[in-house]
Amino acid sequence: MRTRFAIRLHDILERHFPERRVFLRSDRDTRFIRLRPATQLIAVAGITAIVGWAIVATSIVAMESIGAGNFREQARRDLHAYENRLNALAAERDKRAQEALAAQQRFSSALAQISDMQSELLRSETRRGELEAGIEVIQSTLRRTMTEREAAAKEAMRLATALAEGGVLPEADGNGAGDATVDFLSAALADAARERDQTLADAEAALRQAEEMAYELRLVNERNAEIFSELEDAMTISVEPLERMFRNAGLDPDRLISTVRRGYSGRGGPLMPVSLSTRGEVTPEAERAGRILNRLDELNLYRLAAEKVPLALPVKGGFRYTSGFGTRWGRLHSGTDFAAAHGTPIHATADGVVSHAGWLAGYGQLVKIEHAFGIETRYAHMSRIRVKPGQRVSRGDRIGDMGNTGRSTGTHLHYEVRVNGNPINPMTYIKAARDVF
């Protein structure tokens, strides 16, 4: 069976690959090489395999070349899109900066207007007190005049009654004193009439003046109410964004205000008395003014707190974000990276005290600033440090220059915010203040 299959296979190969001989002739001899069908089949298969491998390899190379070209083109498109996005972000940042500047100007204008309104309110309160005192004096004078007029009328009535009954005054003795009595009575009646007329005229004048003063007092109260409403609206517009900003930053506004108030608790004199009514009671206007003044004090405390919280950007010039806060390569990147030119100024983001200024391991040239409320900021990879440990700095002060020291792959600033030692995303504070400052 095996022999028959081999013979049949040999016949098939003979039909397609007949036996061939390749003669090799030299000067002295002639030789030949016998190519059997099996040998030819193996040679053809080998050549086919080599040609197929060459075609496949060429196709792969061509496809990789085409793919590499597409990848480079896609990379160029991505780079272009990234640049456009950076430009858009820069434009958005500039727009936000302009809006923040405009908001700060509106805030300053509101404070100035509040100060003017407060002065006007105090003047109105003083004028209202004077009007109330004047009304009290007029009423007292009117009561005294009416009392005197009634006493004079009673005396005249007594004299007239005595004269009608006996012809003489009770004190007269009838010895030629009748004429003197009549003259005295006539003079007394004339004086009483004049006093009555004068009293009536004074009363009418006092009533007119009282009406005028009441009208003026009503106008003053209406103006005070309008001023109060404007002040309350201004306080709401000014305070609510600050409260929202601190809440967005993860800070408790009440705790901030309490902490700042303890730090700014100095007192002095002279002290102005609370405005009282003529009955010794605290007026509603005084209570309303007190609430507005408390709100104004709260606004000032918010302003002081904002200076102590790192809400500003550490780089003011042109820059781009190169790495954000979060896990990177399996490790926590505890800050935000800002890339700019070598030597770009770096500024403190809040008021505080420098706790470290020098080299620190992978941070390179590092500045640490301790702020209020347990907050610390770090500025790493500097090329030059411009502050010293223990130095007090304010928001916006230049503390160093951008560099490439420590564990860094290029010129940039590594900026950190830590609360009670724990790293916090700095963009939380920066974004929270975007619509306020």
Q: What do these coordinates show?
A:
The chain is an alpha+beta fold. The protein has 3 domains: 2-81, no CATH class; 111-172 and 179-258 and 279-308; 313-432, Glucose Permease (Domain IIA). It contains 6 helices and 14 strands. The chain has helices at residues 2-16, 37-166, 178-248, 253-263, 284-308, 426-432, and strands at residues 20-25, 30-35, 320-323, 326-328, 331-333, 336-339, 345-347, 352-360, 364-370, 375-385, 392-393, 398-402, 413-419, 422-424. Strands 3, 6, 7, 8, 9, 10, 11, 12, 13 and 14 form a 10-stranded antiparallel beta sheet that branches. A hairpin with a 2-residue loop joins strand 4 and strand 5. The longest helix is centred in the first third of the chain and has 130 residues, at 37-166. The chain is rod-shaped. The two termini are 99 Å apart.
Task: Describe the structure concisely.
The chain is 59% helix and 17% strand. By secondary structure, the chain is α+β, with helices and mostly antiparallel strands.
